[in-house]
Structures are given as C-alpha cells and as structure tokens.
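R.M. (postdoc): so does anyone remember the format we settled on? I'll just put the structure tokens first.
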C-alpha cells in the first residue's frame, strides 16, 4: 500500500480491487482529499481527549498516543472490513462520562474505571458478533436516541463553558457568568467566535483551525508558554497500557457494573446513529438499510477493545466524517487516509503543552452545539414522548452526569407511553431497561 498516493497503473489496480472506486463513482485523488478534510475536521480529539482524561488523573502524553493509535486501528478496520468513508476515534461523550460522571462524581479511580471500559468493550464485541447490538438499537425509540445525543451535546458544552471560565459556581444560583476580567477567559471567547465564524463560512476543519488560532493568540499574548519542542517521538503508553487488565478484579461491585452498563449503552447509540446518518449522506443506503453495517460495527468494537487496553475511552464513528463525504469521499480509502494522517500526527505530542483548557473549551462548546441539533428530530408534539426525551436532555447537564439523564428518560418512557394508551408500541427490551436503570440508581445510592 506504500504506492497508494500515486496514480501508477499498479497502485490504481490495487486500490480499485480493495475499495471498488469506480463502482462508487470516485477517484483516488477525491478519496485522498476527503480523507485529509475529515482528518483536519476531527484532529482536535488528539488534544481534547488528553485534556479531558487528564482531569481524571491520567497521563496526558500516554493518552495522546493511545488516542492516535486507537484512531488508526479504527480507521484501518473501517477501511478494509467495511469499505466506508467513515473515521473512528475516541468519542467526546464517552470521555466526558468517564471523567466527570465516573471518576470525579462517583469517586472511582481511573484505573478501575478503565477496567470497566475493557469489560464493556468485551461485551460490546460479543454482542456485535452475535448481532444482538442491532436488535437492541432497533428496540430503543428513535426519539430517545436523539435525546441522548443532544443531552451529551449540552453536557459537553457545559463542561467547555466551565473549563473556559465562562460559567463558574455560585452559592446563590448554582452557576453564574464568569468574570470577563480574567485574560485567559478571553482566549475561550476568541476561540468560540473564531470557530463559529469559520463554520458559518463552511470552512473545512473549522474546529481544528480555530484551536490553532486560539493557541497562536495565547502564545503571542504570553498567556500560553512556548513549547520546548514541536516534533518528538510519541510519548510512552507505559502509564496507561494494560492498566485495564491489571484492575479487572475491581470490577466486582454493583456500582461498577452500573458503570459498565452505561458505557455499553452510550457506545451502542453513539456509533450506530452516526453510521446510518453518514451512510445516508453518502448515498450508500440500500432499501433503507446500511450494507455491511455488521462489519462497520465490528470495526468500532475492535478499536474500542484495543483502545481500552492502551488507555483511552470508547471509540465512535465521527460525525466529522461528513466533511470528507461532502467533498466526495465514498470508500474506505478515505478512512485509510485518515488513519495514515493520525499515524503522522504521533510526532507532534509536544504541542500538548500549548493546548490548554482555554484552547480545548471552544471545541467542546461547538461540538456540543452540533450534537444538540438532534433536538430537531424529537416529536415534541406528543407529551408521552417529549417529556422522557426532555428529561434525558436536561438531566445530563443539570445533574452533571450522563448516566442519570439516560436513566430518567428510559424509566419514564414506558410509563408515559402506557398511560397514553400506546403500550403496544413499547418493545419488551424497553421494559427490561426500565428495571435495569432503577437497579442502577439504587446501586449508585440515588434511591433509598
């Protein structure tokens, strides 16, 4: 594959054999451009993921390397197993749940929490092999899936607003506007405006470019210190590699099994909805079904499993892949290109020191707003659907816990639908989940 970047007959034939370029009406040049566009659009995760997981006490350098490697594995699997122009990397919602809900809120060590991610990954892979994953996804109402995405979006945005200093704690009203006299807060404001204007202009890679501009402003004003180096070998994963395996024995409490369940559920919805949406955008759906979805889900499962061993939270299909699809990406060659670029990015870990909280906060806020767009698809006209969905959305940021928001909606939905005379529309899996979430709240000491 080393010759895949030229247009010689040999390399063209190899790429045509692997990715069926002509069948999808695309070219090598178009696929490479699509891969570059997608990578630039999602490269922020290389710096945001270490920042978020660093709050949990994890080594940022090790997380940087684990993030890149899990993305490489996910993209290569998506390229060669499923032949889709969809990139995979650690998801923002999952790392937020790991840090803020599990480690900080529940007081579970990151080592034990990572063991929980590994267990969830193993179950996840088994369920994908048995095709149970598709069955459960199909059983959960579309509106609740949309609510979960939107709720995680609001939660991520709230974390960004807080990290950037725009929202601070208040004794009288819980939260209030942060002081605009703090210089670093203006870095966040600049970053949000820069990314928002670039996105309004539809510039590819707006989030990544906005982060670069914010970093440059911080360096120019002295609010961010200049790094000692720009290029170096990738940081060692020793602080995180295999930690999940050595702490498996600690996943033996009802509380940890509740955590495993939430990781499973969030990962369930994260990739499935994104995959279908992106396939729809690319015109790859057939008879309202996504061909090779089993292979795509397996690519996600294996990358999630390998990522947990290396030391990062669950991976997911990236909605930013839509940027590459928009410029013509139609095959796995796009995903392969993204994977190669992630490999190249391993050389730039010293830049972690300049990517401060104020630099990553705008990315969280903007991505949160993008995820909140799912609100538009919820049926707000029927209260029996709207209220459970609302409780999912509101519950996540207001309890500062993704799992509680999901629990509120999944407990309420079967009840409101039954009272509204729509009991026959409720799948038995939803009734099962109602009791599972009640049990979860009990073991988390929320219920008496």
């Amino acid at each position: 594959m080393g010759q895949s970047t030229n247009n010689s007959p040999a390399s063209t034939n190899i790429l045509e054999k692997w990715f069926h370029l002509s069948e999808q009406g695309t070219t090598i040049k178009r696929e490479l451009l699509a891969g570059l566009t997608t990578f630039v659009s999602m490269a922020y995760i290389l710096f945001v993921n270490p920042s978020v997981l660093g709050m949990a006490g994890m080594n940022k350098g090790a997380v940087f390397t684990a993030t890149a490697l899990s993305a490489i594995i996910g993209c290569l699997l998506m390229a060669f197993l499923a032949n889709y122009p969809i990139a995979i990397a650690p998801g923002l919602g999952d790392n937020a749940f790991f840090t803020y809900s599990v480690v900080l809120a529940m007081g579970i060590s990151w080592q034990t929490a990572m063991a929980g991610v590994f267990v969830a990954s193993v179950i996840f892979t088994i369920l994908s092999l048995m095709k149970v994953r598709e069955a459960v996804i199909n059983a959960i109402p579309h509106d609740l899936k949309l609510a979960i995405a939107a709720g995680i979006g609001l939660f991520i945005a709230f974390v960004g607003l807080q990290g950037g200093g725009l929202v601070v704690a208040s004794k009288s009203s819980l939260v209030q506007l942060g002081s605009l006299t703090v210089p670093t807060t203006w870095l966040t404001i600049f970053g949000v405006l820069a990314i928002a204007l670039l996105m309004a202009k539809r510039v590819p890679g707006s989030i990544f470019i906005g982060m670069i501009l914010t970093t440059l402003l911080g360096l120019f004003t002295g609010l961010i210190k200049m790094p000692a180096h720009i290029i170096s070998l990738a940081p060692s994963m020793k602080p995180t590699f295999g930690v999940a395996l050595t702490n498996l024995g600690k996943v033996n409490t009802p509380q940890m099994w509740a955590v495993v369940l939430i990781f499973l559920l969030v990962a369930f919805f994260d990739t499935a909805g994104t995959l279908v949406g992106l396939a729809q955008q690319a015109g790859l759906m057939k008879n309202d079904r996504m061909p090779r979805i089993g292979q795509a889900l397996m690519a996600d499962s294996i990358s999630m499993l390998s990522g947990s061993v290396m030391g990062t939270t669950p991976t997911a299909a990236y909605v930013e892949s839509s940027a590459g699809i928009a410029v013509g990406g139609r095959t796995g060659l796009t995903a392969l290109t993204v994977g190669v670029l992630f490999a190249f990015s391993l050389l730039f870990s010293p830049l972690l020191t300049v990517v401060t909280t104020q630099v990553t906060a705008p990315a969280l806020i903007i991505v949160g707003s993008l995820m909140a767009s799912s609100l538009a698809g919820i049926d707000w006209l029927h209260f029996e659907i709207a209220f459970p969905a609302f409780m999912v959305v509101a519950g996540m940021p207001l309890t500062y816990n993704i799992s509680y928001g999901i629990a509120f909606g999944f407990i309420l939905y079967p009840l409101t639908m039954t009272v509204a005379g729509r009991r026959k529309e409720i799948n038995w899996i939803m009734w099962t989940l109602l009791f599972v979430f009640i049990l979860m709240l009990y073991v988390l000491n929320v219920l008496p």
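R.M.: ...and that's the designed sequence above, right after the tokens. Also worth knowing: Strands lie at 88-90, 167-170, 174-177, 315-317. Residues 1-6 have pLDDT under 50 and may be disordered.
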